[in-house]
């Protein structure tokens, strides 16, 4: 996975876990919300001074921010997939969409 994309996913998860919207966090770290959005999707990266503000706003260490603990293990992924399937088992349209998506991904390889 691309480093900027991986970092952005981690940042987004931390932001949501702390209860911030993009707008709120952007205001705290003094950047435009569009820039924060670009960082979270991996199209941009933070400047050093913004990084310091992020660490403080999210109350995390550099190690926590750059760790790869947001990448789920296969067991966790399967559990999540099963959770989605079970939540849709009484909804044929949603279950069909899940089936098509899985089939598309698996058949694409």
Description:
This protein has seven helices and no strands. It is mainly α and 109 residues long. It has two domains: 64 residues, lambda repressor-like DNA-binding domains (434 Repressor (Amino-terminal Domain), Orthogonal Bundle), CATH 1.10.260.40; 35 residues, no CATH class.
Q: Tags for this entry?
A:
single chain; 109 residues; mainly alpha; 434 Repressor (Amino-terminal Domain); 2 domains; 7 helices; 72% helix
Describe the structure concisely:
The chain has helices spanning 3-17, 22-28, 33-40, 48-58, 62-66, 74-88, 92-108. With 109 residues, the protein is mainly α.
Element layout with pairings:
Elements: H1 3-17, H2 22-28, H3 33-40, H4 48-58, H5 62-66, H6 74-88, H7 92-108
Helix pairs in contact: 2-3
Overall CATH architecture of the largest domain: Orthogonal Bundle
Q: In this structure, how is the largest beta sheet organized?
A: none
Number of helices: 7
Beta-strand content: under 5%
Indicate the overall shape: elongated
Distance from N terminus to C terminus (CA atoms, Å) equals 17 Å
- Residue runs with pLDDT of under 50 for 5 or more positions: none
Radius of gyration: 17 Å
Mean pLDDT figure = 89
CATH superfamily of the largest domain: lambda repressor-like DNA-binding domains
- The structural domain count equals 2
CATH level-3 fold name of the largest domain: 434 Repressor (Amino-terminal Domain)
Structural class: mainly alpha
How many beta strands in the DSSP annotation? 0
* Helix content, binned percent: over 70%
């Amino acid at each position: 996975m691309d480093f900027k994309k991986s970092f952005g996913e981690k940042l987004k998860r931390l932001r949501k876990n702390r209860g911030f919207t993009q707008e709120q966090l952007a205001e705290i770290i003094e950047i435009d919300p569009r820039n924060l959005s670009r960082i979270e999707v991996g199209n941009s990266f933070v400047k050093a001074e913004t990084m310091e503000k992020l660490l403080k706003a999210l109350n995390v260490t550099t190690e926590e921010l750059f760790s790869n603990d947001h990448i789920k293990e296969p067991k966790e992924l399967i559990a999540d997939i099963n959770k989605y399937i079970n939540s849709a088992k009484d909804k044929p349209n949603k279950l069909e969409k899940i089936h098509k998506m899985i089939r598309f991904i698996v058949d694409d390889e």
